[in-house]
């Protein structure tokens, strides 16, 4: 009897040890940053959260991101993107400004995705479905995150005729991250970064101390305004923090009666009073200057800005309809900060290029010497302008409109739906529309509607 009891205890102990071992394998809890060990890995592999950059403040570039979420539509392109990215606005090295587009499936024109990728824009994953229930995103398993984000990457590769490995980043819908489940999926599926995580503590009225991009090798210093946030270690996985903005709803924050409210997405910012382009412009300049130049703190002491990479994250819908003053103010802002004589160190680039700079930071003198040479500079554009290297390949062959008869009850999609895809695959062989009943959607077999190769980034 005593032997049997001992065996039972032993089995329980072994089971507990096995469970603990499984948890350790599934999720290694992040420790405080070990600067010596992180530095030994090199800046391309490890950057401690809360650290800035080795470059002196006066010699740093100010990186600015413009991002657009959801479908890449013909309407947004003709009315807005075309005049933003036609060469009117240029960086100090003579390159056109470029953006990052976080894409969803419905209504995206994949032929335009191909065209703008050839212009040097970054394409990233924003999910297939963009379901409206935030709890759906909060509670996804790693496999469900993979279905949404890897599935979207495969669609971009297939229908926009580009290498799926060009899709390196993601943003969660509604900025509702999934904590460790989401980051485990990213790490296991060859993503480079996430840009879903806002910061109020290192943004808003404290944006002078903006949070630089970092890797999740170690514990993060970033606040967690939208739970859950990761607790575990994901070596080499980058986070591009979203530095919160201050809007023009003055008095809405009871903790700061003279402040506006906090907004992570530009289209979430409230502009009270005069609804004019000048008001939009002044709001954007106020926020930009906090990071770029600095501002007074709560005690009235001036604090210089640390030039952390700073972005305007939005949906193109903010420009539509009777809100043309939004667009006009946005352009006024771009016209100001692309005045290279006044702002010789401001570069508007895709997120992937900002992270490449973080991996190999150099002072402005070196960036200036490199000019538009993208074999050296992460902000260069020579191969884009010459359409050489990777840009010589992956031609779309023009767009073709595909009709589908859709039944997706979980997403309320029924009846006729269209999507525009490239006529050629990334290997330059001909691509036809999927069958009308095979609308590309969730599920391994459905991601590309039956079209092949439906490849992922391996």
Poorly predicted runs: 1-25
- What helical percentage do the residues reach? 25-40%
The biggest beta sheet reads: 5 strands, parallel
Overall shape: it is globular
What is the rounded Rg?
A: 23 Å
Decide which structural class fits the backbone: alpha/beta
Report how far the terminal alpha carbons are from each other. 55 Å
Count of individual beta strands:
17
Number of helices: 12
Please state the oligomeric state of the protein chains shown.
Answer: single chain
Mean pLDDT over the full residue set = 93
DSSP strand (E) fraction?
15-25%
- Helix and strand string, N-terminal first? HHEHEHEHHEHEEEEEEEHEEEHEHHHEE
Verbal overview:
It contains 12 helices and 17 strands. It is α/β, with parallel strands linked by helices and 458 residues long. The chain is globular. The protein starts with a helix and ends in a 36-residue tail after the last strand. The N terminus is likely disordered.
